[in-house]
């Protein structure tokens, strides 16, 4: 692609006198080459922009999942700390737990979880990963 750009650049840097000496057929050929290159680069740009959008969406999903996971971890930590304080104050070893946990079953796969899995986890209010 770089070589194509430099070739087009070299072609367009011809002197005015050279261009004036070109026939209409040569000018039309030159125009077709430039238009073909523009179409090709436009198509590649569209593909690259679509890929960038996919990556941006993936990043948003992962960030949402991480935020929910951290929130759940913080809530569990606060709950455990409150239970410890209650145990010390009441003197009993075992107090009934008021925290409800939910286990979301999933099929463990090799590699990272899919975006769909992360979206499902993120939409759940409370989750526990095993």
From TrEMBL:
Keyword tags: Coiled coil, Phosphoprotein
GO CC aspect terms: axon; cytoplasm
Domain of life: Eukaryota
Record InterPro entries: FEZ
One Pfam family named in its UniProt record: FEZ
PANTHER family for the chain: FASCICULATION AND ELONGATION PROTEIN ZETA-2, ZYGIN
Family: Belongs to the zygin family.
Protein name per UniProt: Si:dkey-288i20.2
Biological source species: Sinocyclocheilus anshuiensis
Phylogenetic classification of the source organism: Eukaryota, Metazoa, Chordata, Craniata, Vertebrata
